[in-house]
Amino acid sequence: MKRKMIAALLFIGLMLSGASGFAAERTPIKVPDILGYQTLKCDFHMHSVFSDGNVWPTVRVDEAWVEGLDAISLTDHIEYLPHKDYVISNHDSSYEIAKRAGDQNNILVIKGSEVTRSMPPGHLNAIFITNSSRLDGKDWREALEIAHEQGGFIFWNHPCWTGQQPDGIGRWYEEHSEILDKGLLQGIEVVNSGSYCPQAHQWAIEKNLTMLANSDIHPPIHSRYDIAGGEHRPITLVFSRDRSIEGIEEALRARRTALLNGDVVIGREDFLKAIFEESIEIVFPSVTVVVDGSAYVQIRNKSDIDFHLVSGNGETDLRVAETLTISGGKTALLRISGNEGTKAGRRSVPVSYNVENMWTAPEQSLSVTLNIDVNFENRADPGTER
Amino acid sequence: MKKIYFISTLFVAMILIGAVGSTEGAASERIEINIPDILGYKTLKCDFHLHTVFSDGNVWPGVRVDEAWLQGLDAISITDHIEYRPHKDDIVSDHNRSYEIARARAEQLSLILIKGSEITRDMPPGHLNAIFLKDSNPLDVEDWRDAIRIAHEQGALVFWNHPGWDRQAPGGIAVWYDEHTHLLEQGLMMGLEVANHVSYYPEAYQWAIDKNLAVLANSDSHQPMAHDFQPDKGEFRPYTLVFAEERSAEAIRKAMLDRRTAAVFQGKIMGDSRFLEAIFKESVTLEVSSVSIKGQGGTAVQVHNASDIDFRLVAGKSDCSLQVPGEITLSDGKTAVMGVRGTSDTMSGRKTVPISYGVETLLVGPGESLPVTLELEVEFIPLEQQ
Questions:
Q1: pTM (2 d.p.)
Q2: Nearest-CB residue to A55 (from B90, B224, B233)
């Protein structure tokens, strides 16, 4: 009888948990696949009640699914467990609980932990590890060694975080050189919970570290980001040979990432250029401009990323808009007009812009060239002027 | 050194957790729900049925407080199951813990937090919430009758949850059992949920009227609230209006004992006509109370609705001296125009015309609209003789 009641209760509970779900719709994030790789959307830094977060691990999987992510890693602190009086468990529990939910929702869940120290070395995440509990109670150097031996990929979290650098400026310490030299540091968060760290960006370039952008979310994701309204957490774009954990690991070790932080994209020039070029389509590539008149080139953006263009070194005998925003999913109009000295005839005109929100290095934006096929006509007919 | 390390990690964590209520991010401002105070009472907005990780919910208790504050509520009760605790391998505590953890946050935000628990059984009697408990632990007993008696002896109020829940009431049709009669006759059950999560139970509403039980509407949320309901999109959780002498837990308890409640569910309010009529009267004003109409001519009467509830009016039997719209919606916070027209060329003199409507969004019984009368003073001017 007692047993029967428990079985019935279990059933009840499952139904209660599953009954929710107005928001049970996934919205894919449109960023094109590039250079023969799949572009996977990932977040490798988040917390649950198993450290100082405020949600059950399965919530992280649900949130990732709704937001359109492919892979996540729950990286609960090894050393900081403020709920430990009630949340009695080992460091592997949050992964195990989330993994079961991930298998149901087709979200890739990567095992991870946050090794938590004051600066230096600060906080470091180890992902793709096999046993989190073994990192506990160790000197931080030893913890990183163990993570490394487990096949872990280690990255430095939020180097500019004001909790550890009150002026918000990242500093590279001898400890970081030490772990870099020992092969215990492969990546760095250039973006954490919406904050961009220019020093980390520069170090990633100079020291050939994998760039990462992660949410480091502790409360429910909706309380920080208006997901339903189209906002996103910071996301690491991983250019992977396939949609698998092994593919992501290979890509991270090969430094094939770019970062999405609001409407800013950060990464190597070749990746950003490929994202731009795969996103943009010139709808009618050939236009006719009559002297003193204008033509409009239609530029379609198939991605969800807004591109903010500011003119670079342009053509001398052609006038184009100084700024142009090509919003995600929209088609923008680029106005082109001729000059007095414009030569007649058809030719391909390279129009150069800087994409202000695509950053290849601190304070350096991506240069792109749009090739427009323009036919200039010298027809001096006032009736055709627009 | 060790000490410094702990202090710094504590600091770390406080900042991390602080993100819940910080000014950053999507939701850090409280929505105010405008429903007027009535009959000398304060109209308090309450949700008396919520879960956390301490039973089968997926959030930490403090999250329920933050969500309630953000969504404009005055009071909540966290009602974790006594008997159903699927996370118990990881979360080990007594039955008072979720209340105790949430209390500090509730005090910071001046949200009223009422101690509660859910007594969880097969039907009959189904699931019952006990709120205003002093100690939840003694409710953990084999016989549900004992649990309810113990709650009652603590001064708790007990109500029946989701009577028409399809898991326990096949077809979603609520059934009243002898057990409920027994509880009612012993004074051990003072109310029931007429709405829960996304469901409404008309049978339960009829019983509330017939048996003088307090009507309640609660969210019964297990997931983060924004996962189930998005107030920005007009999706509010179900909540209970309590007409209390003041904004305090004790006044809420007294009001519930006096059956001074109404249930808000998907844009409709269900409750006793004296409360609903007062809400309508306090919310709705005629911008012009006096008009003049010549013969069968028309004029526009502006009607303002100061509340956040849309009032959908359908014409009842009206005074035949005015032609009025058959249907009109007074949207929340808006001013509507009601076109009225004379019906006679010869009518003359000043009179107060009662205009009768049924309010489809104020339900005084299942499917039964609240009848209201708008009184308009009209000066009738007869057409001049030819």
A1: 0.83
A2: B224
- When scoring A5, A9, A16 by the number of chain B Cβ atoms within 10 A, the one with the most, hence best to mutate, is A16
**ipTM value for the complex:** 0.73
Q: Looking at the complex, does the CB of residue B29 fall below 8 Å from at least one CB of chain A?
A: no
Q: List where CATH 2.60.40.10 sits in chain A.
A: 280-384
Residue B74: CA count within 13 A, CB half-sphere: 19
CB A263 within 8 A of CB B266: no
Residue of B285, B290, B280 whose CA lies nearest to B303: B285
Which CATH architecture group holds A24-267? Alpha-Beta Barrel (3.20)
B8-27 residues touching A, CB cutoff 8 A: 8-9, 11-13, 15-17, 19-20, 24-27
Domain boundaries, chain B: 27-271, 283-381
For residues B75 and B131, give the distance between their C-alpha atoms in angstroms, rounded to a whole number. 12
Instruction: From residue A235, give the alpha-carbon distance in Å to each of A217, A245, B262.
Output: 12, 16, 44
- Bridge partner residues of A334 (DSSP): A297
For the B27-271 domain, the top CATH level (class) is alpha beta
Tokens of A133: 């509990």
Q: Which part of chain A is CATH 3.20.20.140?
A: 24-267
Tokens of B287: 């911008």
Partner-chain residue, chosen from A50, A52, A216, that has the shortest CB–CB distance to B13: A52
Cross-strand pairs, A217: A46
- B27 and A226 in contact (C-beta within 8 Å)? yes
Query: pLDDT 10s per residue in chain B (386 long)?
Result: 333 344 344 344 433 433 333 333 455 788 889 999 999 999 999 999 999 999 999 999 999 999 999 999 999 999 999 999 999 999 999 999 999 999 999 999 999 999 999 999 999 999 999 999 999 999 999 999 999 999 999 999 999 999 999 999 988 899 999 999 999 999 999 999 999 999 999 999 999 999 999 999 999 999 999 888 987 777 899 999 999 999 999 999 999 999 999 999 999 999 999 999 999 999 999 988 789 999 999 999 999 999 999 999 999 887 788 999 999 999 999 999 999 999 999 999 999 999 999 999 999 999 999 999 999 999 999 988 55
Start-to-end C-alpha separation, chain B? 105
What sign for the dihedral angle of Cα B312, B318, B323, B326? Answer: positive
In whole angstroms, give the CA distance from residue A191 to residue A158. Answer: 7
B283-381 belongs to which homologous superfamily? Immunoglobulins (2.60.40.10)
Q: Is A280-384 in CATH node 3.30.160.20?
A: no
| CB A185 within 8 Å of CB A209 | yes
Nearest to B235 by CA among A18, A23, A55: A23
Q: Under an 8 A CB cutoff, do A219 and B20 touch?
A: yes
